[in-house]
Amino acid sequence: MKRQIGFKYRLDPTPEQAARLRVLAGHSRFVWNKALAECQATRERGESVPRYNTMAGWLTAWKRQPDLAFLTEAYTDNLQQKLRDLDTAWQRYFAPELDAEPPSFKKKGKSRDSIRFVNFPKYCALGHREVKLPAGLGWVGFRQSRQSRKRRPFLPTAERGQVEFALNREMPPTVGKIKNCTVGLDGGDWSISFLIEYEVKVPTHPAVTAIGLDMGVAHFVTDSDGKHYAGRNSFRHIERRLAKAQRRLKHKAKFSQNWKTQKARIARLHHRAACARCDTLHQLSTRLSKSHAMIAIEDLKVANMTASAKGTQEVPGKRVKQKAGLNKAILDQGWFEFRRQLAYKQAWRGGLLEVVPPRHTSQTCPECQHVDAGNRVTQARFHCQSCGYSTNADVVGARNVLARAHAHLSGRDAPVAPVK
């Protein structure tokens, strides 16, 4: 079977190359916004949103307009990829099972700038710690940060577009084909991601155990065996420094050089917190994926859980400040990113990730199946009002999640009993 993997490295462009990358990113951002405006105008007329083939025709017509002549200096393949991404975003929005948000406009400095170079073997080339990119960029250096003492895990082969890499030190080197690469701007630094496709045998997970996970704030994850795993809470660690940096930004002239420098410092703080959070999630998801053939988690709707409690002027909300603090803590955990990592790591190892509905998982007794809001005595303690079973509430939730996953796999799904 074919499998795809990505390798991301820090890119080290020269000042001239960095300026060219910003221009290319601006071209793609402009095309995205202009095509999105056309799509929204089409919807307002009561017509269907155009697909990619129609949008590609728009791009050809735009290049012929005198006021849009700058698009002739853009990298056409990247503009076409942006239109493909826009088409995909609309299709995700129209798919009811995905519950995705509609595509939105991109703004310079707030949206992530990226340029994708497709058909890598034809237009690009890989060297030792450098990559050749089209669109007037030439050879650009990147940092080979994934190295071991015995071998480098990312080396070009004799055939153009192929690369030899190692997933870890225990596995032998693997040869794959680079499909494309994406250059993006993260926290003021450019990075490059290589998408590699390679052949692999159908995997069989070495473990035979199953586990249920309950997501939380006090404990990031609690499993059905009773173990608690702490979260990183990376945003909380930079909150004071971030507030101080934002206060300094307020007193600087907007769009001045000092203002831009301070904005870059704030972006680096956010980027550092995101990287720390992602690193913690990777370590935990890898540990759980290696140890269990099946992992069951809740299908949490984070957007609904973190909705504002302000209310309206006529009907103001209650305990708004407490709810805002809870929302901040929930968003600092990275629940969906953790789920995404578990999904592909289980698929790589031949395991299974089961997603179950979260309703009443912490109010249902795992011993007698009695459902009662009074069973959750406190945030941390569970005591069944029917049979007297008592334990940690998060452990109860994890056990119920695992039980629902087993019921779903065996075809014994039953409607969740209403809470009393």
TrEMBL record:
<feature type="domain" description="Probable transposase IS891/IS1136/IS1341">
    <location>
        <begin position="194"/>
        <end position="307"/>
    </location>
</feature>
<protein>
    <submittedName>
        <fullName>Transposase</fullName>
    </submittedName>
</protein>
<keyword id="KW-0238">DNA-binding</keyword>
<dbReference type="InterPro" id="IPR001959">
    <property type="entry name" value="Transposase"/>
</dbReference>
<dbReference type="Pfam" id="PF12323">
    <property type="entry name" value="HTH_OrfB_IS605"/>
</dbReference>
<feature type="domain" description="Transposase putative helix-turn-helix">
    <location>
        <begin position="1"/>
        <end position="47"/>
    </location>
</feature>
<comment type="similarity">
    <text>In the C-terminal section; belongs to the transposase 35 family.</text>
</comment>
<keyword id="KW-0862">Zinc</keyword>
<feature type="domain" description="Cas12f1-like TNB">
    <location>
        <begin position="335"/>
        <end position="401"/>
    </location>
</feature>
<keyword id="KW-0233">DNA recombination</keyword>
<dbReference type="Pfam" id="PF01385">
    <property type="entry name" value="OrfB_IS605"/>
</dbReference>
<dbReference type="InterPro" id="IPR021027">
    <property type="entry name" value="Transposase_put_HTH"/>
</dbReference>
<keyword id="KW-0479">Metal-binding</keyword>
<dbReference type="Pfam" id="PF07282">
    <property type="entry name" value="Cas12f1-like_TNB"/>
</dbReference>
<dbReference type="InterPro" id="IPR010095">
    <property type="entry name" value="Cas12f1-like_TNB"/>
</dbReference>
<keyword id="KW-0815">Transposition</keyword>
